[in-house]
Amino acid sequence: MNFRDFLSKRGKHIEDNVDLSEGTLAWNLRAKKKAKELSGVINATIGSATEDDGKLMVLPTLVEELRNLTSDQIFSYANMRGEKEFVQAWKKDTTDTYPTYLQEGANKFSTLPITACGGLTGGLMISAQVLFDKGDTILAPNSRWGNVDNVFFKNLQLKESCYELLDKEGNLNFDSLISKIQKAEKEEKKIGIYLNFPNNPSGISPSYDEVKKFQEVVEEISVPMTIFLDDAYEGCVYEDSAIEHSLFPYLVGLNEDVIIIKVDGVSKRYFAYGARLGLVTVGFGEEVSEEENARAREIIAKATRSNTSSAPKAIQMAMGNVLNDIEKNKKIHEEKKRNICLLEDRYNCMKKLLGEKESSVLQPVGFNSGFFSFFQIKNKQQASEVSHKLLEKGLGTVPFENAKNGLNGVRVAFCSISEKNIEKTVDILYSI
Ligand SMILES: Cc1ncc(COP(=O)(O)O)c(C=O)c1O
């Protein structure tokens, strides 16, 4: 029997194109294997934050709430659109992070979030499915998370148009994105854009000036445009010059031809990676009727239901209970702040040390947020070659190389390095 003979065209396409043997998980396995041969290996491959003692960083209030759930709260079916108390609280929790003057617009021009199964990936998949057909163009940054390729370009077979998020000096620049939008406006019937800040792998978030430039382009666009905001790491920003929350409130209400799909979830925002809960919020370019608002929400719910049923119940109940209880809400935000401060200490330590050294091979980009630092390769070496060399010296990293879109660099996940190991990390990085 040849299983491939049973596959649909789409199944064959997925088999041929989606590669699970490379990327973060593969480099994590390599780092773990190396740790068995060599003592003191630093594993900076995985984007899950860990405490200084190596244990997973979690939020005790959420852990406790999950422990106290009743059987009904865990095992009964969840509402297909999301548990009402939870999604309402999630919307408030998100909007509260925006500057006050933007909160009203953000509420007025958007739906309630809809839960998607399978984390943010589920949210990206479901929303892209209902908005784009095979062959439609999506503008995606050269510096991007591997699953973006899996979802948009390999599974859904959308057409890639790549913009350079990072210039040669490693700074964020929207000029390439803007010129790609202007080109696509002339050539395409509709445009999709994927934005992810804080960015994986580069650790970059934009400044207010940069976003203003982008807003001006969004205001002028005259073909239907959908902007996907992958807000996995929202709130983890360490410099005042960078926007510390989602771009959502800056982009809604600007242009009737533009909709914003905000994809977020508990994975990183509440340090609950395995809870598999993502959310999709639709943002409009103008005020819409209640019917139109409900319709947008319903389409996403229908797509979710017909793909993956409903999202997990337990995490919705626990998060809803915590967010809706004044004391618990305060407590979990203090715990979140404590975790982000820990990440910020590692970030500051790394920035300081990098500022004192030079490498002939690695050029740090202007990372200012998120879980990662990123280094472009200055010479002709491939990033994977560099990652292999670093691993031999006891540092696990993840290479990102894509000759076609000009990205060649290594990602160092400071979220999973203890502060005392940051100096050793930088020493290894700059020893090759
Ligand atoms: C940019 C980005 N989006 C989303 C996610 C999380 O997706 P999920 O919730 O599906 O695990 C990650 C995780 O690594 C990510 O880096």
Global outline: globular
Round the mean pLDDT to the nearest integer and report it. Answer: 96
CATH superfamily of the largest domain: Type I PLP-dependent aspartate aminotransferase-like (Major domain)
Q: Biggest sheet, strands in spatial order?
A: 2-8-7-6-5-3-4
Ligand identities: pyridoxal-5'-phosphate
Give the N-to-C terminal Cα separation: 49 Å
Uncertain spans: none
The helix fraction, in percent, is 40-55%
For the largest beta-sheet, the strand count, sense and barrel status come to: 7 strands, mixed
Query: What is the count of DSSP helices, taking H or I runs of 4+ residues?
Result: 17
CATH class of the largest domain: Alpha Beta
CATH topology of the largest domain: Aspartate Aminotransferase, domain 2
- Content of β-strand: 15-25%
Global structural class? alpha/beta
Order of helices and strands: HHEHHHHEHEHEHEHEHEHEHHHEEHEEEH
How many domain units?
2
Radius of gyration: 21 Å
Descriptive key words:
432 residues, alpha/beta, Aspartate Aminotransferase, domain 1, Aspartate Aminotransferase, domain 2, 2 domains, seven-stranded mixed β-sheet, 17 helices, binds pyridoxal-5'-phosphate
Characterise this structure:
This protein has helices at 9-17, 23-37, 60-67, 71-75, 84-95, 100-108, 119-131, 146-155, 175-187, 208-220, 248-251, 266-269, 290-308, 313-324, 326-355, 383-392, 422-429; strands at 42-43, 114-117, 137-141, 159-163, 191-196, 225-230, 258-265, 277-283, 362-364, 372-377, 395-396, 398-402, 407-413. The relative contact order is 0.17. The chain is globular, with a radius of gyration of 21 Å. It has two domains: 3-58 and 332-429, Aspartate Aminotransferase, domain 1 (Alpha-Beta Complex), CATH 3.90.1150.10; 77-325, Aspartate Aminotransferase, domain 2. With 432 residues, the protein is α/β, with parallel strands linked by helices. The strands form three sheets. It has a seven-stranded mixed sheet, with helices on both faces. Helices cover 45% and strands 15% of the residues. Strand 12 (398-402) and strand 13 form a beta hairpin. The structure holds pyridoxal-5'-phosphate. The site of pyridoxal-5'-phosphate (PLP) has 12 residues, from helix 7.
